[in-house]
Amino acid sequence: MSRIRLSVTENVLSRPDRITHDMYVDHLERLGRSWVCEQSQHIIGFASACVTDHSIWALFVHPTQEGQGAGQHLLALACDWLFTQGAPVIRLSTTPGTRADRFYQAQGWQRDGTTADGEICYLRLR
């Protein structure tokens, strides 16, 4: 997952050291659930949903695999799981003007303001 996260060309981590191995483990084992998309036995994307705040913590697809449906599939799995866990609404945020911003709009997510650091907030109702 870390390899995919560090390979993206947008929404690049300015401080990769802030996302630790333990954070990945927490999201896999305690705070939520994660899914991977594989092609030829290689992980090409992943999504992580956080049950404590009903959010999409991460959705990333390797740049060479974008536009082939992996992101849509991963997002659907994460949202379906959060809704089965009782989430009335799912939230996420992303950098404005990016492919991710356009992706969430195209998937029907509703804009819901901005974060303190300027990211676009999105929500999806059940």
For this entry, give a set of tags.
single chain, 126 residues, Aminopeptidase, 30% helix, three-stranded antiparallel beta sheet, alpha+beta
Show the helix and strand layout.
Elements: H1 2-7, H2 21-29, E1 32-39, E2 42-50, E3 55-61, H3 70-84, E4 89-94, H4 99-106, E5 110-114, E6 120-125
Antiparallel strand pairs: 1-2, 2-3, 4-6, 5-6
Description:
- The strands form two sheets. Strands 1-2-3 form a three-stranded antiparallel sheet, with helices on both faces.
- The N and C termini lie far apart (28 Å).
- It is an alpha+beta fold.
- β2 (42-50) and β3 (55-61) form a beta hairpin.
- It has one domain: 3-Layer(aba) Sandwich (Aminopeptidase).
- The protein has four helices and six strands.
- The longest helix has 15 residues, at 70-84.
- It has helices spanning 2-7, 21-29, 70-84, 99-106, and strands spanning 32-39, 42-50, 55-61, 89-94, 110-114, 120-125.
What low-confidence regions span 5 or more consecutive residues with pLDDT below 50?
none
Q: Might you state the CATH topology name?
A: Aminopeptidase
Spatial strand sequence of the major β-sheet: 1-2-3
Q: Compute the number of structural domains.
A: 1
- Give the fraction of residues assigned to helices: 25-40%
Q: What about the largest sheet?
A: 3 strands, antiparallel
- N-to-C SSE string, H for helix and E for strand: HHEEEHEHEE
CATH class: Alpha Beta
Short description:
With 126 residues, the protein is of the alpha+beta class. The chain contains 4 helices and 6 strands; from the N terminus they run ααβββαβαββ.
